[in-house]
């Protein structure tokens, strides 16, 4: 027994040496075989089990490694193998489980802290993630500092993009293309597109320099690495409205066939948004890229949600009504408070001509989610206008309390009521908006607000109301508004002029009294350069015209009468062979074939001259071709308009009725020619 035990110990020692050597060489498949032999000797060897888990992780067998950890829980406790277990769960996209494993560990090692930061990033808990990486950078000094800074910049970029948080300056030196790329993403989130484009160009340059130093890296490898940078460049172009350039760059990236399924999904989605309701066949091809395996683990929740929205819209554009309803209903169940799913459903109903049902759907959503009621009601009003129910649309708009006083809403309502010739309702809209501003100013003044007693918006509404009332014959009401405006600013000459104009229609005496408040021309300082004005092009033209008019008036006073200038007619060009002594040919306006003295061509007499000249006209030589004509044939009446071309032979049948002699023979010749030419085949 002792000899057997000694032999087993010696064998185990040899196997451990093999495991150590293979581990140093990176040959984990061979190391795993040796570890399995050790476990045959002692199945509960903690070190051997831990080595087996590590070998499986290095070979990418995360599921098998996690199975061994869960099978040997008594031996492999959380203190011993917490990192390996959490890492396997992280790589298997069990992010919540990985977080629990990390938090349950008794000792938080540096490896666990690194993994904790990655887990928080995947869970989109960016504030906690930022704090974790800051702590790591502060308390770590090793060769991985650059990677930690890159991860930190990625967190800041995600906050700027998805949470619209203004990123703080981390003071990171952008020496690598990864840091430049993340900085560009943060700038895109802030809307600084031009600066972001410059950062991406710098990132591209740094990437090329970095990869070109390695002789084993090919140009294809460099382009594959640059794909994500080019994709972000194309996105900026798309945001700037340069859709053709963006589309071209997107398609170039797709042709490279990058292995990153997340990148391909985002590019395909962006192409679909450019296509919209056009080029739907291309969009249907691209949407397949968004369904690739593993996409859901590569993108953020908002990116995945945007892709699903676009799938629903594409289904609507391709007339897949059931698919559209299914996708939008699924989106609504995931995000009940989100506007887009219900808007897509309403749009689909409108395409099916079910406008009433669409309005009812929107109304139900507005009742259930008052916070989003304003946007929904605006859509409802648009649908009512499309149906021609302008008055109902106005009622819906007026029910949006938070927008009633807005100048844009007031303008829209007044325009719509004017279109319906409902002037009283339009004036009521003005009155309610003015009263709202009066009450608002009263509240803010009581609370010692810094606003002026009358805001510019309020005064502008009063002025617009007065103009509207004057236009529609409500003069007294307009005068009341204008007087209120003038009291607010007695020095406002424009308002005073309007008030005088209004009073002149109702009370001329009052208008005269008010006109005394107008400033005299002497007191008005018009900062006008008279010399420059007189020397301008327009003034010179007016002066010349005035001088001409003065001269004409003087002529009238002298009794010379009006002198009308006659336009000189240009002399027509005469032909080169024109002879003034010879009388022009009276038939020179007619085509040569229709003239009475035309005798045909000298050459080619054998060829039949059939169908020459204008349609319906005849020639003198056409009688020779009339085979059906006999001496006893009665004369036919001449065709209208052919009198100038017909001389003595006015009884000739028009060319389109005649049957030329020899036509059958000609037809045979043509057929023979066709047969000869048909040898080549079609």
UniProtKB/TrEMBL annotation:
Belongs to the SRP72 family. GO terms for biological process: SRP-dependent cotranslational protein targeting to membrane. Residues 543-682 are annotated as: Disordered. Residues 95-150 form a coiled coil. One of its GO terms (cellular component) is signal recognition particle, endoplasmic reticulum targeting. GO terms for molecular function: 7S RNA binding; ribosome binding. This is Signal recognition particle subunit SRP72. It comes from Melanocharis versteri (Fan-tailed berrypecker). Residues 564-574, 666-682 have a biased composition (Basic residues). Keywords: Coiled coil, Cytoplasm, Endoplasmic reticulum, Repeat, Ribonucleoprotein, Signal recognition particle, TPR repeat. It comes from the Eukaryota.
């Amino acid at each position: 027994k002792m000899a057997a035990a000694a032999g087993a110990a010696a064998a185990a020692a040899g196997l451990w040496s093999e495991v150590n050597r293979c581990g140093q060489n990176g040959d984990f498949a061979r190391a795993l075989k040796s570890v399995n032999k050790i476990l045959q000797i002692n199945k509960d060897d903690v070190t051997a089990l831990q080595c087996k888990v590590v070998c499986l992780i290095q070979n990418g067998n995360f599921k098998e490694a996690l199975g061994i950890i869960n099978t040997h829980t008594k031996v492999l406790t959380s203190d011993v193998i917490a990192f390996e277990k959490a890492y396997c769960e992280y790589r298997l996209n069990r992010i919540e489980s990985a977080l629990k494993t990390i938090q349950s560990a008794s000792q938080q090692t540096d490896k666990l802290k690194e993994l904790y930061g990655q887990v928080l990033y995947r869970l989109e808990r960016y504030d906690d993630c930022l704090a974790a990486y800051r702590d790591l950078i502060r308390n770590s000094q090793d060769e991985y500092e650059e990677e930690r800074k890159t991860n930190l910049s990625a967190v800041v970029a995600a906050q700027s993009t998805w949470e619209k948080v203004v990123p703080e300056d981390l003071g990171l030196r952008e020496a690598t293309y990864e840091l430049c790329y993340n900085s560009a993403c943060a700038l895109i989130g802030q809307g600084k597109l031009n600066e972001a484009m410059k950062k991406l160009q710098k990132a591209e340059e740094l990437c090329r320099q970095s990869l070109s130093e390695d002789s084993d890296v090919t140009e294809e490898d460099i382009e594959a690495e640059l794909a994500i940078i080019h994709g972000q460049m194309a996105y900026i172009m798309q945001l700037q409205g340069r859709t053709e350039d963006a589309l071209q760059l997107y398609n170039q990236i797709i042709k490279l066939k990058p292995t990153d399924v997340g990148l391909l999904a985002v590019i395909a989605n962006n192409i679909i948004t450019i296509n919209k309701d056009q080029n739907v066949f291309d969009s249907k091809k691209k949407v397949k890229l968004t369904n690739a395996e593993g996409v859901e683990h590569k993108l953020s929740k908002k990116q995945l949600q945007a892709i699903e929205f676009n799938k629903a819209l594409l289904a609507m554009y391709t007339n897949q009504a059931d698919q559209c309803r299914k996708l939008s209903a699924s989106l609504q169940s995931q995000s009940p408070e989100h506007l887009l799913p219900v808007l897509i459903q309403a749009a689909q109903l409108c395409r099916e001509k079910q406008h009433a049902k669409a309005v009812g759907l929107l109304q139900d959503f507005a009742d259930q989610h008052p916070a989003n009621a304003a946007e929904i009601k605006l859509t409802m009003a648009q649908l009512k206008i499309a149906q021609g129910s302008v008055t109902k649309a106005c009622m819906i708009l007026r029910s949006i309390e938070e927008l009633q006083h807005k100048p844009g809403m007031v303008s829209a309502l007044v325009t719509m009521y004017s279109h319906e010739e409902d002037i009283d309702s339009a004036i009521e809209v003005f009155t309610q908006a003015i009263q709202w501003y009066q009450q608002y100013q009263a509240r803010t003044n009581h609370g010692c607000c810094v606003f002026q007693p009358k805001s510019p918006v309020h005064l502008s509404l009063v002025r617009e109301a007065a103009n509207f009332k004057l236009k529609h014959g409500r003069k007294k009401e307009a005068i009341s508004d204008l007087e209120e405006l003038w009291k607010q600013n007695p020095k406002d000459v424009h308002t005073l002029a309007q008030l005088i104009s209004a009073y002149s229609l109702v009370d001329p005496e009052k208008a005269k009294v008010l006109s005394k408040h107008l400033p005299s021309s002497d007191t008005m300082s018009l900062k006008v350069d008279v010399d420059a004005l007189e020397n301008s092009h327009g003034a010179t033209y007016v002066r010349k015209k005035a001088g001409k008019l003065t001269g004409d008036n003087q002529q009238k006073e002298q009794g010379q009468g009006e002198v009308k200038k006659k336009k000189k007619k240009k002399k027509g060009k005469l032909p080169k062979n024109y002879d003034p002594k010879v009388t022009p040919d009276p038939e020179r306006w007619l085509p040569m074939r229709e003239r009475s003295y035309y005798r045909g061509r000298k050459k080619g007499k054998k060829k039949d001259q059939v169908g020459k000249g204008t349609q319906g006209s005849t020639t003198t030589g056409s009688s020779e071709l009339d085979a059906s004509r006999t001496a006893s044939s009665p004369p036919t009446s001449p065709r209208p308009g052919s009198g100038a071309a017909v001389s003595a032979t006015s009884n000739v049948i028009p060319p389109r009725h005649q049957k030329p002699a020899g036509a059958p023979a000609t037809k045979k010749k043509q057929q023979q020619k066709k047969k000869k030419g048909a040898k080549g085949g079609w």
